[in-house]
Sequence to fold (143 residues):
Amino acid sequence: MSKPIFATPDDAERAFYEAVARSDLEGVMAVWAEDEEVVCVHPGGSRFTGLASIREMWRQLFAAEVKIRIRTSHPVKTQAMLLAVHCVLEHVNVDGEDQIGPPMIATNVYSRGAQGWQLIVHHTSPAPDTHGLLAQEAPRIVH
Fold:
């Protein structure tokens, strides 16, 4: 099965979060660039570097059979010819709980190559001031 080609960073980002919601390991990994310098950091977690390490981390998370749905909001996007950075708020819902915890701040970095746009960094951190983050109106796209 061939890897999908994402025409835009938004396409790659959408595919990433949809695959997480399905606990789809192959779908999550299809978004990542095939590069050993890729990095994934979860809130309060370790830094995972390289595809094998990132794959194993997601495999363990999905094996726990915890359903995770992430809605993003307040995007700030910067894009050049070969690199795009999306900073978003992640609103995480676990196992269909009614209550969503405080948002997390995520930075997703994409590179563009022969295989389209691919994720090279996903870094999520707790948001220290959720009221201020949600109250400010962030620009949609920064050029």
Remarks:
- The CA atoms of residues 87 and 107 lie 4 Å apart.
- The domain at 9-135 is CATH 3.10.450.50 (Nuclear Transport Factor 2; Chain: A,).
- The two ends are 36 Å apart (CA to CA).
